[in-house]
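Aim 2, interim progress: modelling of the pyridoxal-5'-phosphate-bound target.
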Amino acid sequence: MTFLSDAVRRIKPSATLSISQKARELTAAGRSIIILSTGDPDYSTPENVKNAAVSAIQNREIKYTAVAGIPQLRRAICEKFKRENNLEYNSSEIIVSTGGKQVLFNAFIASLNQGDEVIIPAPYWVSYPDMVSLCGGTPVIARPSNEDNFKLTPAELRRIISPKTKWLLLNSPCNPSGATYNRSELLGLGEALLENPHVWLLSDDIYEHLVYDNAKFATIVQLFPELRKRTLIVNGVSKGYAMTGWRIGYGAGPEWFIKAMDLVQGQQTSSACSVAQWAALEALNGPQSILQEYRRDYEQRRNLVVALLNSIDGIRCHRPQGAFYVFPSCRLVAGKTAPSGRLIRNDDEFAEELLEEESVAVVPGSAFGLPFHFRITYSVSVDDLREGCMRIERFCSNLR
Ligand SMILES: Cc1ncc(COP(=O)(O)O)c(C=O)c1O
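Predicted structure of the complex, ligand included:
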């Protein structure tokens, strides 16, 4: 008999956090590690946002807030949906939580019973399947039919939906692939959802502001207003506004479902941090030009990293349209042997040996449900990107 619950024994530690931890330990031990494994923007939070937090502290905005968030922030979120997505939401359809992560947890706890299935297209953000399992549901992984674009097709979605499906979890732009669904791809998926009225859509739009090549971000309910009554949009300020540590995310969905999430949150964290909520309010209501600057800069780094990786013998890298990740294939180097004598059989061993031999931290694709790939975060300095890719090239050229 074990003291630990079945639920906790079903989940694994986050692979991205463990690799970053290992990289930090090696750095502390004096090794010069190039860390391409985290999911953090490398910018600082904008000054006006930091100042808003300082003012909030000085104004004694330091008490518990309403569970679903301060009314000013919920209103600002409604205005954001109107301004950027042309979607109408009322404050009663919005919940503010401790990061997008808590919005997802609230939604799963509030909706999943034993045996309920959640469709998760691979490659997926590492946390999704574990969150679903922790909340009693069953993750059902949809494989991409084409490993060059990593997107779920309507045919695969229709094939995998079962009477037990409760949610489709769609993340565009995607962590880890950067894949960004265009309007016609979303139209196809939306049609499949319309045919299956028992399936809800969880649209994780957290990388909304990081879309390149002049592509325009779209979310399914813009195209299918009739899906609004069974869609929860998850978003937040973490990625777009460089505010990961502030822990503010939000959800938008039918009022009765937001109320159920409010019940869960009320018994869990009470509310998101009051000071961080005032900071998020400034992020949404203050000048938005910073988003353009970040986007331009990320796009240049994406171009650089894709070119550098594709010049390496044995590595193939697609050109994603969003987020700040690339997800290259290392399939061609599997089966080769490193100078240490170690056989590289798969992506886990590729990432371990790369860290060992060349001190570059990347995350193996298996952690995201798609082996023989690895994830690189390009929200790091251009110098680190160049140095990291140079080391990967040296690593690959030494394999026999
Ligand atoms: C796809 C995706 N969704 C949600 C989140 C959660 O973000 P946060 O909890 O910082 O708002 C992340 C963070 O890495 C993510 O990559």
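The chain has a mean pLDDT of 95. The longest strand covers residues 165-171.
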